[in-house]
Amino acid sequence: MLYKISHRTTYLYKYPVSVGDHVACLRPRSFPGNHLLHSELHISPTPRVFSERVDYFGNTLSFFTVQESHEELVVEAKSQIESTGRKPRSQRDSMPWEDSARSLAEDRSTDALEAYQYQFESPRIRLRADFADYARASFLPERPMREALLDLTARIHADFRFDSKVTTVSTTMEEVFNKRRGVCQDFAHVQIACLRSLNIAARYVSGYLRTYPPPGRPRLIGADASHAWVSAYSRELGWLDVDPTNNVAPTDGHVTLAWGRDYSDVSPLRGLILGGGGHTLQVAVDMEPVEATSEFAGHSIEEPVKQ
User: Same domain, yes or no, for 26 and 78?
Assistant: First the structure.
């Protein structure tokens, strides 16, 4: 499926900002199943300084500085993606999850060495006995990895309620776990904490979600919005993506933007400003399917267009 995606972020400041330094993580990754065809970034006011680099996790970060007085900052990322969904490297699911987790430290393959770093605590993820206990109801002894992972995903979906009013970006996963309420970011953090507490490598995936509900059925939560889900590593199957918010294994309706240890590694836009006082944040995401005959279809680009 081909998608045209617009992600527009607007900051409205109470008082003028004289200088703003910002970092954007808004260019989608390109890999098999998530093929980036076109990407551009529009910033207003026009930044005096702009540069890009690839971070430790392989995400493209855009650094920019606005040095003129402004009361509004608008950052809009436009992308075109061909999404076919991540495919496991094998259809077998026979290795017990304990063997997969235990053997990771001894595996010297490229995939395993990358996955190893996702077994530990990170800025927003803590390893705790209560998370491990919750996960063990799904990760029974000798149970195959994918089967156990899908069961944990279904349980989080059933036990936690989507509620955008009870959490913020600074809410801890311990609070979410106790309240059993939150949003996609929170549910992803909870599942990652559960997996890592069992020594299973798991990473945070940010991206976009669009759904096509049948007549009379509700849209999936997070449709046409920024979204978050989880990717867990199996030595036998590779990376397995799961979406605890909607209890699905992501397919071509999920478009990956970035991944890291947790939200702090892939925040879409962050920075420091001089002045401004309070501010109001507005975010608008549009994810539109396009025909294969689109002007960008079939043509990859290596560098984004910047304005």
Answer: yes
What gap in Å lies between CA 177 and CA 186, rounded to an integer?
A: 9
Q: Are 125 and 261 in contact (CB under 8 A)?
A: yes
Q: Are residues 122 and 166 in the same domain?
A: yes
| β-bridge partners, 228 | 206
Contact 48/66 with Cβ under 8 angstroms?
yes
Q: What is the DSSP string of 25-85?
A: EEEPP-BTTEEEEEEEEEEESPPSEEEEEE-TTS-EEEEEEE-S-EEEEEEEEEEEEEE--
| Structural domain of 238 | 97-250
Alpha helix segments (H runs only) across 107-236: 110-116, 129-136, 145-159, 173-179, 184-197
Query: Rounded distance, CA 122 to CA 119, Å?
Result: 9
**Per-residue pLDDT tens for 140-185?**
999 999 999 999 999 999 999 999 999 988 888 899 999 999 999 9
DSSP structure class, residue 244: T
- The position carrying tokens 């949003």 is 183
Q: How many domains does the chain have?
A: 2
Contact assessment for residue 243 and residue 101, using Cβ atoms and an 8 Å cutoff: no
